[in-house]
Amino acid sequence: MKRLSFSTLMLWGGLAFIYLPMLILVIYSFNASKLVTVWGGWSLEWYAGLFDNSQLMAAVGRSLQVAFFTALAAVTLGTLAAFVLTRLPRFRGRTLFGGLVTAPLVMPEVITGLSLLLLFVAMSQLIGWPERGLTTIWIAHTTFCSSYVAIVVSARLRELDLSIEEAAMDLGARPWKVFILITIPMIAPSLVAGGMMSFALSLDDLVLASFVSGPGSTTLPMEIFSAVRLGVKPEINAVASLILLAVSLVTFLIWYLSRRAEENRIQALRQAQEA
Q1: What string of DSSP letters covers 61-91?
Q2: Would you say residue 196 lies in a domain?
Q3: Which residues form the domain of 220?
Q4: Considering the entire predicted model, what is its pTM?
Q5: Count of domains in the chain?
Q6: How confident is the prediction along the chain (275 residues), in pLDDT tens digits per residue?
Q7: Is residue 80 part of a domain?
């Protein structure tokens, strides 16, 4: 009988440590009992009850809305910052700019949230904008997530072959056209990865949203945190299970499309070599 190696045991132990709590959460979302820790049989009652819980569903909608716009803004700003850091290697203040881009990665969220809160309060007193709510949450999340996108896209830009872009410009293409038609398609996987990471980070954030939110802008993590202090409700397990299902489906779809695109690219290269 073949013995399991230490690395295999550590691998399965790590996977169980990460995914076993999620599996338990999904199982208990079908619990018929109102007590989360007591199993009362299988039931879909709590999934059906989600539509009657207007407060929780409103928080889900706000979180999805903020996460979607955060992903768009973070990918745009992060890509521009990565392009500056990789394609403009020498300019005055480059070290300071690089430090400012990566600072949110190492800055404690409590410090970042407090700093943004003071900034928004000062701006509101001076110019009357912004009022604390979904807009301030979106700005805070974009500031935080842009750093992750910049790091991911920078790594991809450094691996690109510049001769392809130089050849396009030698043939008369303008820089903006080269960037849109050549650079963006080549860094598309990193853009998708950065967008998914930004969406997940925004959807999961509690600390920043707690500092900069206002009346009527409670997000899903804030709603769950408030409810958990009074005891975990079965509806929370149900909504968490639906989010896990949605994220898993989107991740699988992106992986499948990326794999198909890579297979088509390899097939086109082989056909071109044979021709």
Answers
A1: HHHHHHHHHHHHHHHHHHHHHHHHHHH----
A2: yes
A3: 55-231
A4: 0.86
A5: 1
A6: 567 788 888 988 999 998 998 898 888 888 888 777 778 888 888 888 887 888 888 999 999 999 999 999 999 999 999 999 998 877 888 888 888 998 988 889 999 999 999 999 999 999 988 889 999 999 999 999 999 999 999 999 988 888 888 888 888 888 888 888 888 888 988 998 899 999 999 998 999 999 999 888 899 999 888 887 776 777 888 888 888 888 889 888 888 888 887 788 788 878 877 87
A7: yes
